[in-house]
Amino acid sequence: MTRSVQALAYARPSSLESTASGRLLGLETAGGLTPRGAEAHPRFFAGFLASPQIAARGLLAVADVAVARYHQRARPGSLDPVVTGNGDRLRFESFSGCGGVYARLDVLDEGLGGTETGHGTTNVDVNDPLREALSRMTGDDPMHLRVGPDEMAVTTLGGSVVEKRVPLPDRWLRGFAEAQVASARFDLRAELTGAEAVRFLRGLPRSQGRGRAPLWVVQAGRTLRPTTRPGAGAVCLPGPDRLIALERVLRFATGLRVYGPVPDGLATPSAWEVTLPGMRLTLTLSPDPARGFSGEGGVLEALATDEAAADAELIAVLLAWEPRIDPADLAEQSGLAADRVRAALTRLGTAGRVGYDVADATYFHRELPYDADRAERHNPRLVSARRLVSEEAVTLDGELATVVSGEQHYRVREADGVLSCTCTWWTDYRGRRGPCKHALAVRMARRGVVVRAAS
């Protein structure tokens, strides 16, 4: 697995302190991007939280996912959560070390007491002493939240005193993009009250068991009923133990919303959103506990086009850390067709520049501090497809194409805009995990890459 190291530098450790006016939760920030450009320690928020204890528990849940590996637990992973200020809310995000669970806590306008936030994205320090202090919090005494250095620290910062160096697997970066693409296909499938949500989640099995078929659930009256068959309205719950982070906030839950795609008979990703006073905590699960989001292939079609790269540059200029991105508005401003705007947003997602909010059914702007082209450069199928095109291994013949890979010849057929292939990958997944490298190479060839003429 390809890895790099991300260096996070904080002015001091985050902490929870008691003051004469209540508690002070100071979350320190690392380098990030804002409308003013790159900043070493951006400051996004300073104000009192409407529900301090709930916010503390929600932040702990996001931190739990950041340090978790739900598959092959012996290999720990850890990355400080990402925070984005969108003007009317704060979003705290993390990804599990195994790449199969994406977590996000949205602290909405009412949860922030109506105080506006800054705009931008950075990492926040969530260290072990802070986790212990947040875990011990009881009651709802007033708590002042500060995201970024205080005013005095802003003027006196002379250098970083806390540094963290964390491994950053390429599959983890690709997972952010794939989770966003998968979520954009979700619809609301079920909704429970707070009491029913607690009853259902606490009654789930702790593990799925190796080799067993995935669990499905379907709304039955006021609750959810487990089922082994993905019928109409069913939602896949692959690895129910991966929802354990939700237990942090269950006692405060006002409801549960479950999202997923139209079931097609095979395991699918799903999103589980606990609604809280002034907040939402959402966990998005990959289709299989042993399989992260990075290999799902939902972004490959967008990455395989040259026009998507140029379109993404144009769309990026129009983004302004909005909490809700309207593709129709972007199409009008840019002059691009709606499908090209969606492809551009997908491409921006591979660089962490947009995410998707299933509750609002819309994209939102953020700027993860990663190399914008890295996820694309290290995507194995995309790299292989480009190599096949450069080696002139693709021969086009109307709706058919032949791709030579090693000693094998693969036939790729197009029907209604969908490519199929005679390779093992296509036989196994039938396009459910994106196109194979041969189909990608054919798609590139049809879009203008020079190939030898068919005889």
From TrEMBL:
Name the source's superkingdom: Bacteria
- Alphabetically list the UniProt keywords: Metal-binding, Zinc, Zinc-finger
* Stored PROSITE patterns: ZF_SWIM
Q: Sorted alphabetically, which InterPro entries does this protein's record hold?
A: Znf_SWIM
Q: Where is the SWIM-type domain?
A: 410-447
Keyword Zinc-finger tagged: yes
Q: For this protein, what is any one GO molecular function term?
A: zinc ion binding
Name this protein carries in UniProt? SWIM-type domain-containing protein
Q: What is the species of this protein?
A: Streptomyces filamentosus (Streptomyces roseosporus)
